[in-house]
Amino acid sequence: MAHILILGGGAAGLAAALAAAQTDPTARVTVLERSPRPGKKLLATGNGRCNLDNEGITPESYSSADRAALDALLRTVNAADPLGWFRALGLYTRTDETGRVYPYSNQAADVLALLEHHLARCGVEVRTGCTVQTLSQSRGGYVVLFSNADGADESLRADAVVCAMGGSAGPQFGTDGFGPRFAAQCGGALAPLYPCLTALQCAKPDKRLAGIRAKAHAALYNSSTLLADYRGEVQFTDYGLSGICIMDLTRHLTPAVKSPAVELDLFPDIAEDALSALFAARVPLLPGDTAADFWLGLLNAKLGRALWQAAGLPDADVHRLSAAQWQKLAHTAKHWRFDGLTPCGWKQAQVTGGGLALTELEPDFQFKGCPGLYFVGETLDCAGSCGGFNLHWAFGSGLVAGRSAAGHAAAGRALPKASAPAKSRKKPHR
């Protein structure tokens, strides 16, 4: 009987396990998960609602060091149709106005329960409390050494292994960067890791703005070079900036970015000269002569006051401001710059940027030079936007790898005893 071993019981690992069992019902499929129960991080996605996919998947929704490799693998993921797969399992979904797909119940727990039901139905063994130690080649397959829930060392041989051990984001859910480290020990090249989909800390945050939200166009710069820009809601915090469009910017905040800055356009639908004219034209209509009166109906009063100060305008009767001062205020409102930014750490990050280089993989997520060994999910150098893109990648890569692993194990292909001809590769080990 063919044995397929899945290392990791998150979204990608559970999808891989079920896909393998569905592809070859005669195979033995085993999942090793370190946490007391599988799918811990999955339960927290979408604020507990599980935004499991998006109907607007495009390559531009993802970041990676190698765009060509990403595009090719994403085509494979899309062809696997993770959303269609879920619906075939019996999951009824709904889609919001932005294309985000949720279970109709709005319960992430229902998604996990459905996966667990089908895994049990297919005879997949899910073992928790298991910490992987080493992986080595043996007799045309692989041997994984791990400590079990009782703390004892144990080993399992498998014809195919799918590594789905995650990245570094969300250590409170049991992740610690083991997946990329394990891939590196297997001889894989890594892109440097960095926290993605997280908030930004400012060097000098204005704590008075904490809790204020505003629609804006946000642009990320490295010094004067534009890296990315998104439009959406910005949330001001006591430490800096947050909100979906800010978190999306952090996909592009790689370790190579040395002088990051964000510019906010609080009036993205109005040109700067038109905005200056609008400001000046409001003055005769104001109920008073203070800056607070000026912002009535335009911006939150505290936000307007901070913008006023950022523009360097005097605390004076607004009726006395010159055309040049209104122009300066309009320019600041369109280019409000925040320097000295650092991303919040791994605990706040939703996704890991960087990881195993995508050029190390075959189109079926098989590790080049090591037949029957696969890497999937957040371990890889691929980070998607907010909105279900990362779960699409996790579930889809798991489906592709699980199906391929089942085919490989069934075929009984033997591993070469010498080094792989494609490249010099370390024997997999930790």
Question: What is the annotated CATH architecture of the largest domain?
Answer: 3-Layer(bba) Sandwich
Strand order of the largest sheet: 18-17-14-15-16-13-19
**Which class do the helix and strand fractions yield?**
alpha+beta
What is the strand tally?
22
Count of runs of 4 or more consecutive helical residues: 12
Distance between the termini: 27 Å
For the largest beta-sheet, the strand count, sense and barrel status come to: 7 strands, antiparallel
Number of domains: 2
CATH homology group of the largest domain: FAD/NAD(P)-binding domain
What does the oligomeric state look like here?
A: single chain
- CATH C-level of the largest domain: Alpha Beta
Q: Mean of the pLDDT scores?
A: 93
**CATH third-tier fold name of the largest domain:** FAD/NAD(P)-binding domain
Shape: elongated
Poorly predicted runs are 413-424
List the helices and strands and how they pair.
Blueprint: E1 3-7, H1 11-23, E2 28-32, H2 40-44, E3 53-54, E4 62-63, H3 67-80, H4 82-89, E5 93-95, E6 100-103, H5 108-121, E7 125-127, E8 131-138, E9 141-147, E10 153-158, E11 160-163, H6 178-185, E12 190-196, E13 200-201, E14 213-222, E15 225-236, E16 240-242, H7 244-249, E17 260-265, H8 272-282, H9 291-294, H10 301-310, H11 323-334, E18 336-338, E19 342-343, E20 351-356, E21 373-375, E22 383-384, H12 389-411
Parallel strand pairs: 1-2, 1-11, 2-7, 11-21
Antiparallel strand pairs: 3-6, 4-22, 5-6, 8-9, 9-10, 12-20, 13-16, 13-19, 14-15, 14-17, 15-16, 17-18
Description of the structure:
The protein is of the alpha+beta class. It has helices at 11-23, 40-44, 67-80, 82-89, 108-121, 178-185, 244-249, 272-282, 291-294, 301-310, 323-334, 389-411, and strands at 3-7, 28-32, 53-54, 62-63, 93-95, 100-103, 125-127, 131-138, 141-147, 153-158, 160-163, 190-196, 200-201, 213-222, 225-236, 240-242, 260-265, 336-338, 342-343, 351-356, 373-375, 383-384. It contains twelve helices and 22 strands. Helix 1 (11-23) runs parallel beside helix 5 (108-121) and helix 1 packs parallel to helix 12. It has two domains: 3-195 and 348-411, FAD/NAD(P)-binding domain (3-Layer(bba) Sandwich), CATH 3.50.50; 200-343, no CATH class. A hairpin with a 4-residue loop joins strand 5 and strand 6 (100-103). The strands form six sheets. A seven-stranded antiparallel β-sheet has the order 18-17-14-15-16-13-19. A five-stranded parallel β-sheet has the order 7-2-1-11-21, covered by helices on one side. Residues 413-424 have low confidence and may be disordered.
